[in-house]
Amino acid sequence: MKKLFYIAWGLMVLAACSGKDPVYWFEAGSPESGAGSSIPYYPAKPSAGDDTPQGNPAGGYAPAGYRLVWNDEFDSQVKLYSNWYFEKGGTGWGNKELQYYCASGVYEPTGQQTASVGEGTLKITAYKITPSKSSDNCGYISARMNTKDCWQHGYIEMRAKLPLVQGTWPAFWMLLQDGPYWVLDPSRTGAEIDIMEYVVNPPENPLDMVYFSAHSYNATPEGADGKQSGYRDPVTGTKYAYCQWVKVQHPEDWHCYGMEWTHEYIRGLLDGQQYFYVPNPTPDQTDLATWPFDQLFNLKLNLAIGGGWGGTPDPNFTEATYEIDWVRVYQK
After folding, report:
1. 212 belongs to a structural domain
2. Does the active-site annotation cover 192?
């Protein structure tokens, strides 16, 4: 989950736009536009297979040809600890976040559970607390989880309900198993894939947008080409942004957030409908400098509070829950 301070400006304009799908952050061919600019870009929807959802809201939308290789249906707290490990601390996590992440999903001074399994779902809950040494002087506690297993390519999906409390920032994302967290050096291979990020921070963000992003040196504003960097289709020459958003009806209800991840492309889906697509600019070779996604990644779940993108929490905030029905990984 990478800090995206520049997004807020673009949101103010993009939020007013509707009726076209998908919405891309920028038209790189225009000298006036850039990531988060006030010039939205609505290209033709890329062709990446049949867009008719194959599946259903409860069972998911895995494309034909994929088989289940890993899953957590969140029916056992014991299995939770065997499948996931927890990070801890209140360092701000690179985004000036306000929460302290609890080891094992439990805040020891009070016994509050920030990650618990019950009634067939995982509940990641953030609480407002009195800051103390035990919370690294943070005023909120929450959980950040990582799979012990890792994968390269496949179809990955989560069914979840998102909190609607201002200042919350739930995410479902991936980082390299063994490698730098984030680098700008093109000779190295830091990378991040955000399958779902959601911020509740009015008035900049209406309560109906989720984001997908795929970060690499050549696909972020910090890249060599500045705000004009991105992914270019090697056949058509079409330029694709690294971050795209889509409106979701009632994010507090159950929805499926998925990603098809291959050597040739990455695409993001909401309830089986594609809204994010980027092609590998070097599909005829393995070039980790420009397409660092041909590596092993872990899956991550967390609920952040505040920060550079999460914004100021509601002053009446007491607690908020990010509820996950299941997480599944499919491969061919």
Report:
1. yes
2. yes
- In sequence order, the 6+-apart residues with CB closer than 8 A to the CB of 278 are 214, 219, 230, 231, 240, 241, 242, 265, 266, 267
> Tens digit of pLDDT for each residue in 2-27?
433 333 333 332 332 322 333 333 33
Q: The domain that contains 317 carries what CATH number? A: 2.60.120.200
CB atoms within 10 A of CB 87: 15
Q: Is residue 21 part of a domain?
A: no
Mark whether 222 is an active-site residue: no
Q: Which of the 8 DSSP states describes residue 263?
A: S
pTM (2 d.p.): 0.84
Tens-place pLDDT, residues 253-284? 999 999 999 999 999 999 999 988 888 888 99
Q: Which of 97, 197, 260, 323 is catalytic?
A: 197
The residue from 97, 157, 192, 323 that is catalytic is: 192
Report the number of distinct structural domains present in the chain.
1
Residue 3 lies in a domain: no
